[in-house]
Design brief:
Pdz3 Domain; 2-enoyl-CoA Hydratase, Chain A, domain 1; six-stranded mixed beta sheet; alpha+beta; flat; 12 helices
Length: 484
């Protein structure tokens, strides 16, 4: 899709901190739409429908007790039409919001670095970006943000809410968050930063004298396929005997990017994805690989509940058309395609125009893709940042204490319970940690202890030996290598 002849969808996803789950964007030429009241009718009943809308506008302007701006009414009418679609992925940006979004399509942007959408009226995390403040602070997929720096997000549309979350580098975003399975909000503080656009990361994993390549794709932007191809070639030069493709926490992005990556991996000119339009005249579009032979080594794909849309397309293609195994957790479940049109006043409409199916014909929307090997990470992988503005101590109760106990248990310090009550065993565990770090052994979690605990648990999480899903993927590659 192009705006005024310039391809700007290249970085749609990476600036998604300022938008609403464009987790798969369709590459398509569009024409500019007219303003609302001047759209020409083109179907049976259209003229009368627009006449009714015009009548309502004129009646309100003539009879309403207060003066109402014409633009305000038109903006409200558009918002109302979008709302009646009952589709969290269709949206409208007024000229100011659209301008800010377009300007954010650069080499980096400033914010907390997370993909967000509206679900049941709440701003919901799809996935934090790799290495972002959101990830470091412990935000997880499906976390719901209730307020930012004390300001409630209730009743705001997505763009209004995002304006509260975004901010300059170095500033704080203190979030009140509800996590699935908990009724009590927790406080998570993110220090906003520059969010760079790096989408492919590679490494070599050696086990039992075997070399396995790992390519992590954090999102699908315009250069992702190019970088993937380059880094895959570099791994192959090192003589890898298996490949892990990691799309965990990848919220999706550019359709062309996932198509080009699929063409590097899906053998026998297999199907990558099927696109079905609502308009029967357009029918179904099938995207196929141009590759003939499969790679000479086994491939495994890592997925989790933060893998959405374009990530799910790749996972589905690798499973259905290539027979490769999926490891991890069930994916997010977004099976629709959006297209954005710029209108004459520079406002933008984003509409769902199609749904996509896996090569086997499955529509995974709201269902996700189940892995072949279901593996859950250790509980402490879900730990969030400990509060910096209060002290946790004996006889307290709540979500912050429960989070503390999860961290202590993850560090092998045996707090005795993880139900959120700070008892003597939890206090003893805190004292053991403080002693090991040469901190005053008070048994209270103040700022210095909280920071040390945070650093320790992040080191645990980042250690590949503790990544059960990754270790399972390596195990599957080893088994498949033996089978050959």
């Amino acid at each position: 899709m192009r705006w005024n002849g310039r391809t700007v969808l290249a970085l749609v996803l990476v600036s998604m901190m300022a938008s609403s789950l464009f987790t798969m964007t369709f590459l398509k030429e569009t024409t500019q739409a007219s303003s609302l009241v001047s759209v020409s009718s083109s179907g049976k009943g259209d003229a009368s429908d627009l006449s009714k809308l015009q009548d309502a506008l004129e009646i309100i302007k003539r009879d309403y007790i207060q003066k109402v701006d014409n633009d305000q009414l038109i903006e409200g009418a558009i918002q109302g039409m979008i709302k009646t679609l009952d589709d969290p992925y269709s949206d409208y940006m007024n000229p100011d919001a659209a301008k800010e979004f377009t300007e954010s399509l650069g080499s980096s942007f400033q914010g907390i670095g997370a993909e967000v959408t509206l679900q049941n009226g709440r701003v919901t995390i799809v996935s934090p970006f790799k290495g972002s403040p959101a990830e470091k602070a412990g935000l997880r997929p499906n976390d719901q943000i209730l307020s930012v720096n004390g300001e409630s997000l209730e009743g705001l549309d997505l763009y209004q809410a995002v304006q509260k979350i975004r901010g300059p580098k170095g500033s704080k975003a203190v979030l009140k968050v509800i996590r699935a399975g908990s009724t009590e909000p927790m406080t998570i503080t993110c220090i906003r930063d520059d969010i760079p656009i790096e989408t492919v990361y590679n490494e070599v994993i050696t086990k039992d004298n075997k070399k396995y390549g790992k390519l992590e794709i954090s999102q699908f932007s315009v250069d992702t396929a190019k970088h993937f191809k380059e880094q895959l070639a570099a791994l192959e030069k090192q003589g890898i005997e298996g490949l892990i493709i990691d799309v965990r926490g990848n919220p999706g992005g550019y359709l062309l990017a996932v198509k080009e990556i699929g063409e590097l991996l899906v053998p026998k000119q297999g199907v990558i994805v099927k696109i079905q339009y609502g308009d029967n005249a357009k029918g179904e579009e099938v995207m196929r690989s141009t590759l003939d032979k499969a790679k000479p080594y086994p491939v495994v794909v890592l997925i989790d509940n933060g893998s959405a849309s374009a990530s799910e397309i790749l996972a589905g293609a690798m499973r259905d058309s290539a027979g490769y195994k999926l490891v991890g957790e069930k994916s997010f479940g977004k099976g629709t395609v959006q297209n954005t049109v710029e209108m004459r006043d520079k406002s933008q409409l984003k509409l769902t125009i199609a749904k996509w199916l896996t090569p086997s014909g499955e529509w995974i929307h709201k269902k996700g893709i189940e892995p072949d090997y279901k593996v859950q990470q250790p509980t402490y992988f879900t730990a969030t940042q400990l509060p910096q503005d209060k002290v946790l101590q004996r006889d307290q109760n709540g979500a912050d204490v429960k989070n503390l106990q999860v961290i202590l248990e993850g560090l092998g310090l045996a707090p005795g319970r993880t139900d959120g009550y700070f008892d003597e065993k939890t206090e003893a565990a805190v004292k053991r940690f403080q002693t090991s770090k040469k901190l005053p052994a008070t048994g209270k979690v103040e700022k210095a202890t909280a920071a040390a605990l945070q650093e320790a648990i992040l080191a645990q999480i980042k250690d590949p030996k503790n990544d059960k899903q990754l270790q399972k993927a390596v195990e599957v590659l080893a088994e498949q290598g033996k089978a050959k």
